[in-house]
Amino acid sequence: MAGPNSERRAAYRNCFSAEPILRKADSDFAAGRILPRFKRLALRKYPQGNMVPPHRHLDYEAVLLCSGAYRFRINGTEMELTPGEGILVNIGDQHEDWRGDGAKFIGFSFTLEAFPATNGIPALLAPGVSPQEQRFRIDLKEAEGLARKIYEEEQRQTAFSRLIQEAISLELFWRIIQGLPRESLSTGFLDNTADGSFRARLSRLFQDHIEEVLTLDDIAKQLGISRTSLTNKCNELFHMSPGKAFCRCKMERAGYLLVNTRLTVKEIAGRLGYASEFAFSRAFRREFNLSPAEWRRNYIY
Amino acid sequence: MAGPNSERRAAYRNCFSAEPILRKADSDFAAGRILPRFKRLALRKYPQGNMVPPHRHLDYEAVLLCSGAYRFRINGTEMELTPGEGILVNIGDQHEDWRGDGAKFIGFSFTLEAFPATNGIPALLAPGVSPQEQRFRIDLKEAEGLARKIYEEEQRQTAFSRLIQEAISLELFWRIIQGLPRESLSTGFLDNTADGSFRARLSRLFQDHIEEVLTLDDIAKQLGISRTSLTNKCNELFHMSPGKAFCRCKMERAGYLLVNTRLTVKEIAGRLGYASEFAFSRAFRREFNLSPAEWRRNYIY
Asked: Where does the secretion signal sit in this chain (chains A, B) (predicted)?
């Protein structure tokens, strides 16, 4: 009988192919470097249940209820979770909890860090978000699987166990973010991280027009924002002007075409909207410190 | 019948407790911020097998053989992998591969980034490492489980799928590092990442002597290195002097004691080797912008 597990296995068998899942341009450009710095991670069980008097949070805290009962108050609003639900406590929130007998939780506290740290770190949650909007939902089996792996790695204690635990926690973190209502996240956070965000839309726009010459006006118009706001956001996110970012995109595509096709340098220049092979080669060398021909000779995937 | 799976489940049931797994001081200090930037990730299958002519790598590449035959040459040395083994191709390596019919691989290429990027990025591999030492071994079932999750997330395509994929790749990355011979890794990389490294030993030393006053000489002697080398390493890793790093450790412990015990501020000062409550409070405020009393009032875990 073909159950969901055998379907899953079949899907996985099919996932091996000659095509890569992630390509250079995707992951280079889309990957945000907003990262949580974990302060504490706990798998907690309260055989007797208990309550925690009102306290204020100086870090973010994610609390996921695995089983049992959990009631709490955030900034005066009383709520209750069912297993598989969690709450993301905001920095500064006033929090007060009641845990039922035998309640089990996965919880961690964290701050955000941005790399490179330039214009500060965006808040995770939108301003004025209500406690109800801080509720998230997650696949409990998946989350508990991650918690189990963190625990197993704790027993193993190899030289890299701590970093493996961090990576697993990072997956849990993004799954929690994924489980929050999108409206609950701040614009700054979304702009840096989410697909469909400014970062992702700009990246898609560049890919779609990679054979063309785009002016600042063209880009701003396509994204439906002003030139100033385009330039500001671009500087904030990529530390370069929109034009420079577009050029980098073209050069990454050029690097790919040089290695994976037999197109001549002149043809590649044409495909990337360069009128002259010379201008293209100059831009390429500025980006990679190699001429297109040197790149093709050296850099074969 | 109690198989390994039921044992595993039992171990997991026991892992929920009132005690956190990771505590603040641990994860704050031990977590390296050397991160891979993934360029390409692929689950590749070659029904017909093939060969790739000699090429030079400009990124690191990890190739893990899941099934089938894989022979290759790195810098002239010919090798062969069995399933569950992988090879970490170094930047600059000359590489040439033969893949057998139906061979399946998990492969990704990456560069390293350091945050904050200060004194450059250490090489991953030790200088002069031989191709044999670039071989790693990994739990194939675990690695394939991670690959499957990356693939599943690719189908899902939510706003955070890309970042979830990155986190899973990061776990795979650290498991591969864990599977390499330790001697194959460069000192700079180990110093920044591994437990038992300079970073970890310094952190342990601080924890063990947190009630004392340690001079630069004391610390250098305990670690068996010179004062200059201690200061240099500390600046390199933490961007502060050894004394400042020790002070930060004490203040983190102070923050913990204030919230989790009923010790007076004077008692906590004493426990951290401060002769005067005043000097302690001043150091505390310098670290957290709050007085110990304010911290205690506001910051309850």
From this structure: none
For B148-205, write each residue's pLDDT tens digit: 898 888 888 888 988 898 899 999 999 999 999 999 999 888 877 877 677 777 877 8
Say yes or no for a CB contact (<8 Å) between B157 and A195: yes
Q: What is the ipTM of this complex?
A: 0.72
Number of CB pairs < 8 Å for A and B? Answer: 225
CA distance A40 to chain B (A): 5
Q: Looking at the 3D structure of chain B, how many domains does it have?
A: 2
Q: Are residues A211 and A180 in the same domain?
A: no
Within-domain flag for A236: yes
Contact A178 B168 (CB under 8 A): no
Token pair in block for residue B108: 């990704």
Looking at the fold, whether B179 and B237 belong to one and the same domain comes out as no
Q: Which of B189, B215, B247 is the last residue of a domain?
A: B189
* Residue positions counted in chain B: 301
Is A195 in Cβ contact with B158 (below 8 Å)? Answer: yes
Q: Which of B189, B216, B245 is the last residue of a domain?
A: B189
Q: B106: distance to nearest CA of chain A, Å? A: 9
A105 and A182 part of one domain? yes
Q: Are B238 and B28 in contact (CB under 8 A)?
A: no
Token pair listed for A249: 């995109």
Contact at CB, A174 and B164, closer than 8 angstroms:
yes
Q: Are B247 and B287 in contact (CB under 8 A)?
A: yes
Indicate whether A141 belongs to any domain. Answer: yes
Task: List, in sequence order, the alpha helices (H) in B181-300.
Answer: 187-193, 198-208, 216-223, 227-238, 242-260, 265-271, 277-288, 292-298
A79 is in which domain, residue-wise? 33-186
Nearest CA in chain A to B189: A160
Q: Is a pLDDT exceeding 60 seen at residue B120? A: no
Task: Give tens-digit pLDDT for A69-95.
Answer: 999 999 999 999 999 999 999 988 888
Q: Are B199 and B29 in contact (CB under 8 A)?
A: yes
- Taking a C-beta distance cutoff of 8 angstroms, is the pair B195, B203 a contact? no
d(C-alpha B100, C-alpha B92), whole Å: 25
pLDDT recorded at residue B3: 52
B41 & B119 share domain? yes
Distances from the Cα of A140 to the Cα of A67, A84, A119, B13, B150, angstroms: 10, 5, 36, 15, 18
Which of A28, A162, A199 to probe by mutation at the B interface, max B CB count within 10 Å? A162
Mean pLDDT value across chain A: 82
Give, for B150, the enclosing helix (H) or strand (E). Answer: helix B140-156
Considering the domain architecture, whether residues B172 and B212 belong to the same structural domain is answered as no
Q: Could you report the per-residue pLDDT of B39-49, keeping only the tens digit for each?
A: 778 888 888 88
Do both B93 and B208 map to the same domain?
Answer: no
Same structural domain, B173 and B220: no
Using only C-alpha atoms, what is the Rg of chain A?
24
> A77 or A206: whose pLDDT is higher?
A77
> In this structure, how many other beta carbons lie within 10 angstroms of the beta carbon of residue B228?
10
CATH number for the domain that contains residue A230: 1.10.10.60
